[in-house]
Amino acid sequence: xxxxxxxxxxxxxxxxxxxxxxxxxxxxxxxxxxxxxxxxxxxxxxxxxxxxxxxxxxxxxxxxxxxxxxxxxxxxxxxxxxxxxxxxxxxxxxxxxxxxxxxxxxxxxxxxxxxxxxxxxxxxxxxxxxxxxxxxxxxxxxxxxxxxxxxxxxxxxxxxxxxxxxxxxxxxxxxxxxxxxxxxxxxxxxxxxxxxxxxxxxxxxxxxxxxxxxxxxxxxxxxxxxxxxxxxxxxxxxxxxxxxxxxxxxxxxxxxxxxxxxxxxxxxxxxxxxxxxxxxxxxxxxxxxxxxxxxxxxxxxxxxxxxxxxxxxxxxxxxxxxxxxxxxxxxxxxxxxxxxxxxxxxxxxxxxxxxxxxxxxxxxxxxxxxxxxxxxxxxxxxxxxxxxxxxxxxxxxxxxxxxxxxxxxxxxxxxxxxxxxxxxxxxxxxxxxxxxxxxxxxxxxxxxxxxxxxxxxxxxxxxxxxxxxxxxxxxxxxxxxxxxxxxxxxxxxxxxxxxxxxxxxxxxxxxxxxxxxxxxxxxxxxxxxxxxxxxxxxxxxxxxxxxxxxxxxxxxxxxxxxxxxxxxxxxxxxxxxxxxxxxxxxxxxxxxxxxxxxxxxxxxxxxxxxxxxxxxxxxxxxxxxxxxxxxx
Length: 632
Prior knowledge:
By secondary structure, the protein is mostly beta strands.
């Protein structure tokens, strides 16, 4: 496993990790290593405790002969294979160079100068800083807005193309000029293209189409990853987007996924095993400039604790297609698979190939920092039903809906669950106790088995909730995979997400979650991209409520054009515990959508409650896609 710390649920992302792993920083680290080799032996001063991450991400650095620390509590601790010495020993060092593992180190270097042996050269991580023009806050290198970065699966090959869509939501937080620095990596990790794009001055939409990128740079067909770095971000450093995969050869495939979650994790879960007539391909995309060793990536049947290693190394920033059946032959849906990723990759995509169609979805971070929470067995009454995991039930005349709960914490041994169903007006349509599911369960519940044929003909939504009638434990990180099948065309789509407490004045830990500020989060700002190339977008908006809340939402649908101007607005009132299936082409009409343009979008806004949404595209050939929405 890579010795890196990437993300903490309470403190957020590790900015120093992003500073070390940026592709340009990786190039500079190679140059720094070359500069240090002739100066061996090397001493190291580690004031910020990042030496393990630095050495993991820069294996070309020469061996470290001495390590010094400022904190007296760290004296004697093993760092980089050395017993840490007090900084007061520096004058007696035998090293020819001192590497300080810190940025903005000028004052520290000046402070140490009188104590350094004659002839010792002093270097710091300022040698690998990004150019000043790429920094949002140049005066504070460790400011998280300097590293608003993410990866995207990006492909233009074999009759399939990709389109990344988002908006300049940083403008809503007061950002000035915002631009993107982008780098496209090929399957072998080589750089195909590097360029910059200015974003709209206001909250306008933007898109990157793999066909246009390929034509612009004269590229051959590719399947790789796109690195995005936002310069000029305000408000927060999270880079969110929707990614559509669509056919360019008149094929039947269509799918969409959410952003990649920029923080590599030790494990991921929610990877479905293939059916007899399917192939499940896991796209393993190396997020670093250091190769993934053979055997460092492994798959395991969820709960089996018998991981099988992928025997090939994966080059820096390269992409490898891992056919699940090659490592785990004979394991079939509805079994689930756990990915042991060793912190080498951000949230990976997987591709399901069946009957000439392909669909893309993503796995989720499996938490290693969560323990069972006994409080969830009897939450205070003001929190009502507590944690809810809402999901759409698409119109049942056309679509089947399948629900599969997924363990998403390494300590999770049971899933005590109930399924509550609601029609669009929020009226209960049934409740089903799913039992106390073990970690290795193989439940995939087709709602056709619990609903009458004529129930919910226009759809509605369901909510998974904890139910401890048979015991068990919960942690609040309840997840599930939701699979949808078109009964006529055979096309399928799937999405996965986790639970929250919704729409109560009372709070529990960090719930109801808020996008900005402290909880409770009681408002909505969701992004819905528009269709392109004959495909029409849609969204299923759900108004979940852990306890009684406003009888109806006061939601606005705001159609924006490519510059961010509002073209039209439409009101929407969703019943509490209800839902609504929205098609922008029906709400706004073709003329207004044409004015908005292909990079326009709908902002779903509500200041009275938090809605949860899923979005997708539909085409005339029976193809459709679906994934959860993002807000900002």
